[in-house]
Amino acid sequence: MQVKKDQSSFNTSELRPTSNSKTKVFVALSGGVDSAVSAALLKEQGYDVTGVYMKNWSGDDFGIQADCPWDEDQTDAASVCKHLGIPFRSFNFERHYREKVVEYFFDEYSKGRTPNPDVMCNKEIKFKLFLNKAISEGADLIATGHYAQVKKEGETYKLLAGKDNNKNQVYFLYSITQDQLSKTLFPVGHLEKSEVRKLADKFGLPNKNKPDSQGICFIGEIDVLKFLMANIPKKHGKIVDIETNQEVGEHEGIYFYTIGQRAKIPNQTQAYYFCAKDLDLNIMYVCHGENNNELLKSVVEVEDWHWIGNPPSKVELSGVIRYRQKTQSGKIDIKNKKFIFDKPQRAVASGQSLVIFEGTECLGGGIIV
């Protein structure tokens, strides 16, 4: 997700008061480079730092044990702490992760929606369970390796886009609260990814060359379709061309596909894309062309608005419907739970998040209906 830069918003000296050795910070270490550099920077700045690995998933009965790298990640996190000379701890949230994230994941897909497990993981695990346990264990603050920034204005905390447009992760953080922001540090948010890699080398971190993870939060890189089919029964139905109303194929279950995804239909000379679902009739509709009008939508309905501060007073704002998308201008209708984009958006998927911005500030968002 990319956000147009407002340089005046990125005075990093305003993001947090000067650190001191009496401020105790628990850093969420994933085993990756971003969180490791976060811990190193905080130690360098004089904080009392403890590294914490959250064990949230180890595979087992869902059939993806081979794809779950938790043991390697935990070892890497412990190695980083040893290298930095800071305490290492491990918190086990597997039961909570299964209840709050994995069950949500399956429940949403079974309803024909496309869930966002990273948003839910941040909401329920990192900034609720981890934050609360860290504070109860004596921490003053927590820190993560997210590419995001926090700025305090008066008594209000604002969530700002990270400097690196390609890694900016505020899309996944829109459900955060004022209290949570007041206790959170994002040490690499003002840096480009290339700068973080250089710092990892400078600090001599043992995981400095570890590649970025692109998988589901804490589960890793998995074949999502295979994962779903192993746990949700197939329910075959028709694939129908929405423009001709002719049946052109058969699907294995509405919940296995998302809007905008290319449809693999035999004996077709022109590519089809899924553009709509009829859950009652168990029909998947397709259209020809990647940018067919059937895939475009200007008015996006949402549910469960969440605002980081006060609800926005302005009508003309910007929004995004997916990670790494550039902000798109439009108008918000809070009362009627809608956002009207100035230009139609491709492949708006129910269950995903619509996140609202004013400039570089993330105001909040909601779930797409």
Automatic annotation (TrEMBL):
Gene Ontology CC annotations of this record: cytoplasm
Annotated site (Interaction with tRNA): 146, 352
CDD domains membership: MnmA_TRMU-like (cd01998)
Occurrences of domain tRNA-specific 2-thiouridylase MnmA-like C-terminal (ranges): 301-368
Keywords (A to Z) from UniProt: ATP-binding, Cytoplasm, Disulfide bond, Nucleotide-binding, RNA-binding, Transferase, tRNA processing, tRNA-binding
Active site location: 121 (nucleophile), 217 (cysteine persulfide intermediate)
Domain tRNA-specific 2-thiouridylase MnmA-like central: 226-288
EC code: 2.8.1.13
Top-level class of the enzyme under EC nomenclature: transferase
HAMAP family: tRNA_thiouridyl_MnmA
Protein's name according to its UniProt entry: tRNA-specific 2-thiouridylase MnmA
Organism per entry: Candidatus Dojkabacteria bacterium
